[in-house]
Amino acid sequence: MLRKFAGLTLEELAVSADTSIAYLSKVETGRLTPTRGYVAQVTAAIATRLRAAV
To answer: Model-level pTM?
Structure first.
């Protein structure tokens, strides 16, 4: 999972992506299908973390 590869906890990513932990968890487990905008928002937060690690 990309979130774990980036070294982010569910809570850290939720805060960075400005979303709730519950919603993010449901998306990760496949219980909810995210919008493209939501995917872009979460991806941007992960990318920011990965860029900082380089």
So the answer is: 0.90
